[in-house]
Write a structure and sequence with these properties.
Elements lengths: L3 E7 L8 E10 L4 E10 L5 H4 L3 E7 L16 E8 L5 E10 L2 E2 L6 E7 L1 H6 L12 H16 L4 H30 L1 H4 L3 H23 L4 H27 L4 H24 L9 H24 L1 H15 L3 H15 L1 H22 L1
Parallel strand pairs: 1-3, 1-8, 4-5
Antiparallel strand pairs: 2-3, 2-4, 5-6, 6-7
Helix pairs in contact: 4-6, 6-11, 7-11, 8-9, 8-10, 9-12, 10-11
Pfam family, one: Gpi1
GO cellular component, one term: membrane
Keywords: Membrane, Transmembrane, Transmembrane helix
Length: about 375
């Protein structure tokens, strides 16, 4: 026999007139209790009572317009709720009649708990876990309210127009994003070697998720709204950084890169020439020092020649990169990562060549 009962009542019920209580009755086998989820209320004789898919689970009597007419004999689970207005302005709810499994329950032997909840907050919440544990009362109540909110709330003409405009607007952006996403997915074997390429791919995938979610919900929810706001902030910061760089840097980015690269080349040449002599008074193998020094000087000069010939292409590349930089500061960070990899590419080449030479020399010595 069920001795425990939970009745969830919306806080705004006290402002309603007497009428039938609509909601769901759920039996929790784990806790051996029944839960009355009261979602809405309809007055007697209302045509919406027969159209709504919610169950009629009780009757609410307001002290100002109480009535004794209710339909407990037609339902296996029924609760009759009354309210009393106290002198201090607080409203107190009472259960005057309870029917469980077609049996009248003695109020003295039943432990009934009334829980007041905020209907609007549970209707708009998105913070509940998608896979809540069994018996989570508020998760069940929130999902019940959200699933039934279209029936309980008639959309105004303005809302319908807004949803229609939003859908057309989303479709306008969705098709180009889907097309670009397919292209980047096919180019992913090449783009995975570039930080900018990987960021463009992930950015398009996130944009696609956001647009499809908005299209499904017909509105901005918590997650999609936060992501849209982050995109706006990212683009604003990106434009601000670009304006700041253009204000303080007068030269072309490619020329600035070549000027810094030239300083690095001269420094490396001086260092290698010093090592080819008698560094710190050490007497090293002159023939080996000379051959290794010329080896590194050759590759440094080769790298410098490569950058010089690439200057026209670098100008075009920087213009394209600036377009991506306008999409957000995260794109600029990806561009900086690729530029660092490009500028330091010669060190990797020299390392590979030097390791190969060392292997050849070591093999010849040990053989």
């Amino acid at each position: 026999m069920i001795n425990d009962l939970l009745v969830f009542i919306p806080q705004t019920l006290c402002t309603k007139q007497s009428g039938y209580v609509l909601g769901k009755v759920v039996y929790d086998t784990h806790s051996d209790l029944k839960k009355f989820y009261i979602i809405s209320l309809h007055k007697e004789g209302s045509s919406e009572l027969t159209k709504c898919t919610l169950d009629t689970i009780g009757y609410y009597s307001n002290a100002n317009n109480a009535t004794k007419k209710f339909l407990d004999h037609k339902h296996s689970d029924w609760v009759h709720i009354t309210i009393k207005h106290s002198e201090n302005g607080q409203n107190e709810y009472y259960l005057t009649n309870i029917v469980l499994n077609n049996k009248n329950i003695d109020l003295l032997t039943t432990h009934a708990t009334i829980v007041l909840y905020d209907h609007q907050a549970l209707q708009e919440t998105e913070l509940f876990e998608s896979k809540a544990a069994s018996g989570d009362h508020f998760y069940e109540l929130a999902k019940l309210i959200q699933n039934m909110k279209d029936e309980l709330r008639i959309k105004s003409k303005f809302v319908c127009i807004w949803e229609t405009l939003l859908i057309y607007h989303i479709f306008f952006y969705l098709y180009p994003v889907l097309w670009l996403s397919k292209i980047t997915e096919k180019l992913l074997p090449v783009l995975k070697y570039s930080s900018l390429g990987l960021h463009v791919y992930s950015w398009l995938e996130n944009i696609k998720w956001m647009l499809i979610t908005i299209l499904h919900d017909k509105s901005f929810k918590l997650k999609t709204g936060n992501y849209a706001l982050s995109i706006v902030i990212d683009i604003a910061l990106g434009i601000f950084v670009l304006r700041l760089l253009q204000y303080y840097i007068e030269d072309q980015p490619s020329q600035l890169l070549l000027n810094n690269a030239e300083k690095v080349v001269e420094t490396l040449k001086d260092l290698i020439n010093w090592l080819m002599g008698v560094p710190a008074g050490l007497k090293l193998n002159h023939a080996l020092n000379n051959s290794m020094g010329k080896f590194f000087l050759y590759h440094i000069q080769l790298w410098w020649t490569f950058l010089t010939f690439l200057k026209p292409l670098l100008d075009l590349a920087f213009k394209i990169l600036l377009l991506f930089g306008g999409l957000g500061v995260t794109f600029q960070i990806s561009i900086i990562a690729d530029l660092l990899a490009l500028v330091s590419f010669h060190t990797y080449c020299i390392y590979v060549y030097a390791a190969r030479v060392k292997f050849i020399i070591g093999s010849s010595i040990y053989s």
